[in-house]
Each structure stands twice: as structure tokens, then as C-alpha cells.
Amino acid sequence: MLKKTSNFVLGRLSPCDVRKGCTFQSPRSLRPSFGKGRVLARLGQAGVKLAFLSILQTGVVLLALALSDSQAQIGSIVHDPTDMVDKYLELDIKGVRLDAISQEALAPYITWKDEPIWGRTVVVTSYQVINDFKQWTVVSQSEAVIPVEYRVLGSVYWEKASFLPEPQVERVGFRVKIVGDRWRIAEPILPPHIGQKRMINYVRQALLDEKDQTKAAALETLLDDLKKAKHEGPASAPTPR
Fold first, then answer.
1. 25-64 burial, b if ≥16 CB within 10 A, otherwise e?
2. Per the domain annotation, does 9 fall within a domain?
3. Stated pTM of the model
4. Averaged pLDDT for residues 40-60
5. Pick the residue with more confidence: 36 or 167?
6. pLDDT at 25
7. How many domains does the chain have?
8. Residue 207's pLDDT is what?
């Protein structure tokens, strides 16, 4: 349970116990400021956008404020870290982690190098990155936990090519941190979360390529189960307190 909260004052983050964590509270408007140990907040089209823009390396603040939003790449510290998380999830839901070669597209967004060999793939209909700062947790001035909600249909178990329906809203906290001059996801390392349509197409292609009749029959059953899967859970997961 979080013990303390933080408040923005003229673009600064007030002191909080970083060992226990603290949560964001954002006002209607913020005036940017930067410097040693401060957090820059800015107002974007979709509302107040937050980015931790300053870190100390051998006593020097490395901050590229001269870059415009159009010039800065997704993941840059001058961008909202939720943009980076959203891009990672978008690639995941499209199935890039189903193929070892395409996994390289995720390298700019994560801190780990090797992807585990997964025996399970989670099938989802959608996801939502939570932009409400009150639900974020600050770990340090260069690290935070951003909640994400998945609308889960169930899981595919590849050993038996079977689908287990588990309709639910899964809420996961993505820990993001500054590495060099970019935001990256540090954890968790989850099984692939693939969109339902993408998974159906993937299994359909596997069925066309399969020559073994027994395995083909299992894939055909899997394909039917995926087509029938529906989400009947609540609209959103309960917010942790």
C-alpha cells in the first residue's frame, strides 16, 4: 500500500519516500521547469503529459529540450513514456513475438536481450495504457510503474495446440526506466499477448502448412475455439488500492 503521494508545483515533483513509492496527482495546467532532480511536466493535446526529463550522469544533466516533438523518436525522454509502452503493446498484439526474427523490432523498447521460449500465448481483444497519473507509481526520478489493462479471452497452449477460455480483464504494471536517453520497459517479461484476429490467422496458416493429420486435426479444433471465443468479463479491472 502506498503511504505517500506527490504533488506537482510549477513543474516540480514534491518530495516523497521513493523507497515506498508515491503516486502522481496532476493539476489542470503545469509550467515546465528542469534542473537537478526535477521532473518536467507538459500539457499535450490529450491532457497533461508527463516525462521525466532529467537525470544525473557524473554530475551533468543530460537533457535534449531543443528537440521538437516531431523530431523526437518514440521512447525519447522528451516524450511521454506511455507512447513507448503503447508502441510495444501494439507490436506485441500484432504478433511480432510469434517469430524470433520479428522480435528484433521490440529491442528499442525493452531492457532485456533474450526472449524466453513460451509454451503459452495469451489471446486478447484489446488493451489500454492507463494515462491517469493517480494510478501511476513513482519508483525514482527516472523510473515509474504504468498500469495496463488487457481484455483477455484465454490462452493457447502450444504443446497440445489447445485453447483454454479465461475471459477477464488483466491489469499489469509496466515498470519503465530511463536508459541512456530513452525510456525502456524493464519488467515484467510476459508471455506474448496476441490479438484474436492475428492469432486466428496464425493458426489458420499453421493448419495449411501442417502435413501430419493428427496435428492438423488439433489445429482445426484450436482454430474453431479461437473463432468462438468471446469476452464476457467486466469493462475494467478494479484499481489497486
1. ebeeebeeeeeeebbbbbeeeeebbbbbbbbeeeeeeebe
2. no
3. 0.69
4. 36
5. 167
6. 38
7. 1
8. 96
Using only C-alpha atoms, what is the Rg of the chain?
21
Mean pLDDT of 10-33: 36
Confidence (pLDDT) at 39: 37
What is the spatial distance between Cα 241 and Cα 238, in angstroms, rounded to a whole number? 9
233 within some domain:
no
Residue range(s) defining the domain that contains residue 168: 22-228
Within-domain flag for 210 = yes
- Domain annotation covers residue 59: yes
